[in-house]
Design goal:
The structure holds two protein chains of two kinds.
Chain A lengths: L1 H55 E2 L2 E2 L2 H7 L2 H4 L2 H5 L4 H9 L6 H30 E2 L3 H7 L8 H12 L4 H8 L11 H25 L3 H9 L4 H29 L3 H6 L7 H10 L3 H28 L13 E2 L7 H32 L1 E2 L2 E2 L2 H12 L7 H31 L5 H8 L1 H4 L2 H13 L2 E3 L2 E3 L4 H26 L2 H9 L4 H12 L1 H17 L2 H6 L8 H8 L5 H24 L7
Parallel strand pairs in A: 3-4
Antiparallel strand pairs in A: 1-2, 5-6, 7-8
Helix pairs in contact in A: 1-15, 1-18, 1-21, 1-22, 6-10, 6-12, 8-16, 10-12, 11-12, 12-15, 14-15, 15-19, 16-28, 17-28, 18-19, 18-22, 18-25, 18-27, 22-25, 23-24, 25-28, 27-28
Chain B lengths: L2 H11 L21 E7 L1 H4 L7 H11 L2 E6 L4 H10 L8 E5 L1 H10 L5 E2 L23 E12 L22 E4 L5 H14 L4 H10 L3 E3 L2 H9 L5 E5 L2 H7 L8 E3 L4 E12 L5 H12 L1 H11 L2 E2 L19 E3 L3 H4 L3 H12 L3
Helix pairs in contact in B: 6-7, 7-13
The chains are: A mainly alpha, B alpha/beta.
C-alpha cells in the first residue's frame, strides 16, 4: 500500500510537471502570436495611427471632408474625380477612353505601377526558367544573388542608370560603336519602368524559381506516359503551380511600385510625380490632414490589391510539393534539334537583355567608384579608409556602418522569422475573415514609407506621457524591431502557401500521437516548407539591409547608422565616395546572401 | 499586455539599447561640469565627403570659450524640432544653424507658439551685409550665404545670358533643374523666376521652359549627378562650383558659372536660439563667435559659401573660384510669408503632366 502510494505520488508529481510543460507548449504558439501582435502594435500600427488619424480627426472632430476634397480634385483623380463630384459614370468613362484623358496623380501612379509590374514579370519569369530548369556552373550563387538589387539605395540605382542609359552612357557608346544612336532615354517613364523592373523582376524570378523547382517530376512523367505532349504536360501540370507564384510576385511588385518615390523623381523627373511624392511634400509643409488622407487612399488601393491576391491565393489548392523535382537540363544543347535549340536561343536573347538591365547598371556603379577626373583611381576607396581612421566622432565611418548593418540585419531576420511563421500559421487556419486579417498583417508592405517614418518619430522617439514620465523608444533594439516589421510580411508570403497546401492529416496525426502544436510545426510542417523559410529569411535580411527611413528616425546616438545612411552621407559633388561605399554594400550583402542560402541547407526550392 | 508594460519589460532587458526618457534623435551627452552647447544643424555642415566646417568650428569654439559644443544632426533637419514642438516634447538643443528664410516662414505658418527666441544684441550683427536679413523678428541671424546660378560645361556650349535665352531652340533639352519641394536650389530657382516674371507670369515662363524640354528632377544630387554624367550641359546649382571642381582636379572649363540676367539668387543661412535653450548665453556667445571676421572668412571657405559679414577676412584668391553675382536677389521674409506655399503648389499643378 505504502509502496503503491509513493509511486502514485511520484507519478502525480511527474504528471504535474509534464502538464505544466505541456501547457507551455500548448500555449507557445499563442505566446508567439501575442508577442508578434505587441511588436506590430508598438512598432507599426500605433505609430502609423498617430499620422493617419489626422485625416479623420480635424480639430478634434471626425470628418470625411479631407477625403472628399482629394477625391473630387482632378489633380489627384483626373477624370474619375468628376465621378466623385456626381457626374454620370457613362460620360466619365467615355472621357477616360479618349486620348487626352487626365489620369491625375493617383491614376498615373496606378498606371505606371501596372506597367512596371508587367515588365517585372516579363523580365523575371525567363530568369526563373533559366535558374530552375538548367544546370550550369555558378547557378546556385547566381540564384542567391538574384535579390541583390533589392538592397540597393535608389541614389545608387540612379547613378548606375544614368551611367548606363544616359546621353553619354554605356548603351549609347555601344550603339555608337555599331554606327547607331545616340538615343535620348533619360529622363523618361520608360527608364523609370526599367528601374522598377530592376528592383522587382528579381522578386518575380526568385518566387517563380521556387515554384518551378517544386514541380513533381513524376506527375509530368505520368502525364507524358498517358500520351500528353510536352506542351500539354506543361499546361496541365507545370503552369498551375507557376501561376500562383507569378501572381503573388506581381501583386507585391504592384504594391511596391505604387509607393515609389525617389527613383521616379531621379529618372523620370517631377512631371511623373507619384502619390508618395505628394505625401512627402504635404508632410514637409505640415499639411498633415491632407497628407494623411492621401496616404490613406494610397494604402486603401494597395491593400485592395493585396486582398484580391489573398482571395486568389486561398482558392489555389497547390498539390503537395513533389518529392522529386524535375531534372535540370544542361545549358549546352545535347543535340542540334529545333526542340533543344529554340529555348536556348530564347535564353540567349534574354541573357543579353538581362545583362543590359541588371548587370550593366551595377557594373557602371562599380566603374564610377573607380574613376576620377584623370582615369582609373582608387582614391574613393582611400577616402573610405581615411574617413575610417581620421573621421570625427560625429561623422559617419564605413566600418561601424557595415557592422551595424549586419548586426541589425541578422537581428531583424531572427525576429522576422518567428513573426512571419506564426502569422502564416494563424492565417492558414480556416475561419471567417482570415483573409482580412492576412491583408491587415501585410500592411507594413503597403503603408507609405514617409508616414511610417513620421509615425515612428511621433509615436516612439517622442513617446507618450504616462503619469508624468515620458516613455520613449529608440536605439538599436527599436531599429531591429522596425526592420523586422518591414520584413516579416515576406516570410508570411513565402511560408503561408506551402503551409496551406500541406495535408492537414499529417499535423492531425502528429497531434493525436501527443505532439504539441508547436512541436508539430517545428518537427513536421516547417521542414516541409523549409525552402520558403529560407527565402523569407533572405528577403527579411535584404529589407533590413536596404532600410533607410526608420533607421535614421530611430537612431538614438550618433553611432547608430547603417550602410545606406553612409552612402547618403558620402553623396556629394563627386560620385566616387558614395559609389565606393555602394560597392562595399554590394560585396557585404552578396556574401551574406550566399551564406544565408548555404546555411539554409542544400535543398530544392528557393 | 499594454504598451507601457511592454516598454518596461523590454527596457529592463535592454536598458543600454533603449534611449531613456525624452531622448533626442541623436546623441547629446554632457560630460563634466563645463557648460555644454548643443547645436542642431544639417548633416553636411558637420559631415560632407568634401569639406565641412563642423569639426573645425567645434575645436575653435571650445578653445576660445569655456564650454563644450555638441553637434546634433537630426533626420529632416529643422523639421525635426518643429515636430517636437508640435508634439509638445522638450527640445534638447540650444540652437539651430542652417535656417533659410523659407524655413522661418514655414515655422511661423505652421507652429502655434514660438520655436526660437529673439537673439537680442549680438556683437558683429551690424556688419552683416544688407539684403541678407532673413528675419524681421530678430530671431535668426545670418552667418553666410550661397548664390544659386547655372553651372555649365563650357567645353560643349556657351550658356545663355538671360532667362529668356533659356527658351531658345538651341538650348532645347539642355537644362537640368530640381523640384522646389526636394531641394533648396530648385526652390531658389523657382523664386528667381517669380522675381523675374512676377506672380502672374512665372507659370507661363515655366510652361515655355517645359516646352523647351527642361528636366526637373527630385533633389540637387539627382540633377547634379545626371549633369556630371553628361545628360545635359547646364544644371541649376551653386556659384561656388569651381571650388569643388578645382579641389577634385577637374577641368574648370567644364564647370563654368552663369548668372542669368546678371543676377544670383541669394540663399542666406541663419542661426537661431531655441525658446527653451538651457544655455542661451553660451548660444549667444556662439553667434558672436561665428560673426568674428576671421571665423567668418574661414567658415565661408570650409562650408564653401560666402560670409554674411562685410568685415570677413577671406583668404587671398577666394574670389577666383567662388563667384558673387553682380546683383543679388532674394525674397524677404515678408514677401514669402503667405505666398510661397501657393507659388509652389501652383507650379506643381502646372508642371505635372498627367
Amino acid at each position: 500500500m505504502s509502496r503503491d502510494g509513493l509511486t502514485i505520488a511520484d507519478t502525480d508529481d511527474a504528471e504535474r510537471q509534464r502538464r505544466i510543460r505541456d501547457r507551455i507548449k500548448r500555449r507557445a504558439l499563442a505566446l508567439f502570436g501575442a508577442a508578434t501582435a505587441v511588436i506590430l502594435v508598438v512598432m507599426f500600427y500605433y505609430p502609423v495611427w498617430t499620422v493617419l488619424s489626422e485625416a479623420i480627426f480635424v480639430d478634434g472632430a471626425a470628418t470625411v471632408s479631407v477625403f472628399v476634397e482629394i477625391l473630387q480634385d482632378p489633380f489627384y483623380f483626373g477624370e474619375v474625380a468628376r465621378l466623385f463630384s456626381g457626374e454620370s459614370p457613362i460620360t466619365v468613362f467615355g472621357d477616360l477612353l479618349s486620348s487626352d484623358r487626365q489620369l491625375g496623380i493617383v491614376g498615373f501612379t496606378a498606371y505606371q505601377a501596372l506597367l512596371s509590374t508587367l515588365l517585372s514579370v516579363v523580365l523575371g519569369v525567363p530568369a526563373a526558367y533559366l535558374l530552375a530548369r538548367f544546370d550550369f556552373p555558378g547557378r546556385r550563387t547566381l540564384r542567391s544573388l538574384t535579390i541583390l538589387p533589392f538592397v540597393l539605395p535608389s541614389i545608387m540605382v540612379a547613378v548606375g542608370f544614368y551611367a548606363t542609359f544616359g546621353q553619354t552612357g554605356t548603351l549609347n557608346a555601344m550603339l555608337g560603336a555599331v554606327g547607331l544612336g545616340p538615343v535620348d532615354l533619360l529622363p523618361s517613364l520608360e527608364v523609370v519602368l526599367v528601374a522598377h523592373a530592376f528592383y522587382n523582376a528579381p522578386l518575380v524570378a526568385r518566387l517563380t524559381t521556387a515554384a518551378w523547382e517544386s514541380v513533381d517530376a513524376s506527375a509530368i512523367e505520368t502525364a507524358r506516359s498517358l500520351g500528353a505532349g510536352p506542351f500539354q504536360a506543361f499546361r496541365d501540370i507545370v503552369a498551375p503551380q507557376l501561376v500562383p507564384a507569378v501572381v503573388m510576385s506581381a501583386a507585391l511588385t504592384f504594391v511596391f511600385t505604387f509607393g515609389t518615390f525617389p527613383i521616379v523623381l531621379a529618372l523620370g523627373g517631377f512631371e511623373l510625380a507619384t502619390i508618395e511624392v505628394f505625401v512627402f511634400r504635404l508632410i514637409q509643409d505640415f499639411s498633415y490632414a491632407e497628407a494623411a488622407a492621401l496616404a490613406l487612399i494610397e494604402l486603401a488601393i494597395s491593400l485592395a490589391i493585396l486582398y484580391l491576391y489573398l482571395r486568389y491565393e486561398a482558392r489555389q489548392s497547390v498539390e503537395n510539393r513533389g518529392a522529386r523535382p524535375l531534372a535540370r537540363r544542361r545549358l549546352r544543347p545535347p543535340s542540334l534539334s529545333l526542340r533543344e535549340l529554340l529555348p536556348r536561343a530564347g535564353l540567349a536573347v534574354y541573357t543579353v537583355i538581362a545583362l543590359l538591365v541588371f548587370v550593366l547598371p551595377i557594373g557602371s556603379m562599380i566603374y564610377e567608384s573607380l574613376s576620377g577626373p584623370t582615369g582609373l583611381t582608387l582614391e574613393h576607396y582611400q577616402f573610405l579608409l581615411d574617413r575610417q581612421v581620421t573621421g570625427a566622432a560625429f561623422q559617419v565611418k564605413p566600418w561601424p556602418a557595415i557592422r551595424n548593418s549586419l548586426v541589425i540585419g541578422v537581428g531583424s531576420l531572427l525576429v522576422a522569422l518567428p513573426m512571419g511563421i506564426v502569422v502564416a500559421v494563424l492565417t492558414t487556419r480556416r475561419y471567417r475573415g482570415r483573409k482580412l486579417v492576412d491583408a491587415v498583417a501585410m500592411a507594413p508592405l503597403a503603408v507609405s514609407g514617409i508616414v511610417v517614418g513620421l509615425g515612428l518619430l511621433r509615436g516612439l522617439v517622442f513617446g507618450v506621457e504616462i503619469g508624468g514620465t515620458r516613455l520613449a523608444l529608440g536605439g538599436l533594439a527599436a531599429i531591429v524591431a522596425a526592420h523586422a516589421v518591414a520584413g516579416y510580411p515576406f516570410v508570411v508570403r513565402t511560408v503561408a502557401p506551402g503551409l496551406s497546401s500541406l495535408d492537414a492529416r499529417i499535423v492531425e496525426s502528429a497531434r493525436s500521437l501527443g505532439a504539441s502544436r508547436i512541436r508539430a510545426l517545428w518537427d513536421i510542417e516547417l521542414p516541409l516548407v523549409w525552402p520558403g523559410v529560407v527565402a523569407g529569411a533572405a528577403f527579411a535580411f535584404a529589407i533590413s539591409i536596404g532600410e533607410f527611413n526608420a533607421t535614421v528616425v530611430l537612431a538614438s546616438s550618433t553611432n547608430q547608422y547603417t550602410m545606406p545612411i553612409a552612402i547618403e552621407r558620402f553623396m556629394g559633388r563627386r560620385l566616387g565616395p558614395a559609389t565606393a561605399m555602394g560597392v562595399v554594400l554590394l560585396v557585404v550583402t552578396s556574401i551574406s546572401f550566399v551564406l544565408i542560402d548555404r546555411l539554409g541547407g542544400e535543398s530544392r526550392g528557393l | 499586455m499594454d504598451r507601457r508594460q511592454f516598454l518596461t519589460a523590454a527596457g529592463a532587458g535592454a536598458t543600454a539599447l533603449f534611449a531613456g526618457c525624452s531622448s533626442g534623435g541623436v546623441g547629446t551627452t554632457a560630460e563634466g561640469g563645463e557648460q555644454t552647447l548643443v547645436v542642431g544643424t544639417y548633416s553636411a555642415f558637420v559631415d560632407a565627403p568634401s569639406t565641412s566646417p563642423g569639426g573645425w568650428v567645434k575645436q575653435q569654439f571650445e578653445e576660445e570659450f569655456d564650454g563644450r559644443l555638441v553637434w546634433q544632426t537630426p533626420s529632416n533637419d529643422e523639421n525635426y524640432y518643429i515636430e517636437r514642438a508640435n508634439a509638445g516634447v522638450d527640445i534638447d538643443a540650444d540652437m539651430f544653424i542652417g535656417l533659410n528664410t523659407d524655413d522661418l516662414v514655414n515655422i511661423d505658418e505652421n507652429l502655434d507658439g514660438q520655436l526660437f527666441a529673439e537673439a537680442g544684441d549680438i556683437e558683429g550683427q551690424d556688419s552683416i551685409k544688407s539684403g541678407l536679413d532673413i528675419d524681421p523678428d530678430g530671431r535668426a541671424i545670418p552667418y553666410g550665404t550661397g548664390y544659386i546660378s547655372l553651372v555649365y560645361d563650357g567645353t560643349s556650349m556657351e550658356a545663355p545670358e538671360t532667362f529668356d535665352g533659356l527658351l531658345e531652340d538651341e538650348y532645347q533639352g539642355d537644362l537640368l533643374a530640381q523640384s522646389p519641394s526636394g531641394s533648396d536650389t530648385g526652390e531658389a530657382f523657382l523664386y528667381h523666376t517669380i522675381n523675374e516674371y512676377g506672380e502672374d507670369g512665372y507659370l507661363d515662363y515655366w510652361s515655355d521652359l517645359q516646352d523647351n524640354d527642361v528636366s526637373v528632377l527630385g533633389s540637387w544630387s539627382d540633377s547634379y549627378s545626371a549633369w556630371q554624367n553628361g545628360e545635359a550641359p547646364m544644371v541649376v546649382s551653386y556659384s561656388t562650383d569651381q571650388v569643388f571642381a578645382d579641389s577634385d582636379g577637374a577641368n574648370l572649363e567644364e564647370h563654368q558659372i552663369r548668372f542669368l540676367n546678371d543676377q544670383g539668387y541669394a540663399n542666406p543661412e541663419g542661426m537661431a536660439i531655441f525658446q527653451d535653450a538651457s544655455s542661451p548665453d553660451l548660444a549667444r556667445e556662439f553667434m558672436e563667435f561665428l560673426l568674428q571676421p576671421e571665423i567668418q572668412g574661414e567658415l565661408a571657405e570650409r562650408n564653401v559659401m560666402f560670409p554674411a559679414s562685410e568685415s570677413a577676412e577671406l583668404p587671398e584668391g577666394y574670389d577666383e573660384l567662388a563667384f558673387e553675382p553682380p546683383e543679388a536677389v532674394t525674397f524677404s521674409y515678408d514677401e514669402l510669408r503667405g505666398s510661397s506655399g501657393e507659388w509652389i503648389e501652383n507650379w506643381e499643378r502646372e508642371f505635372v503632366s498627367n
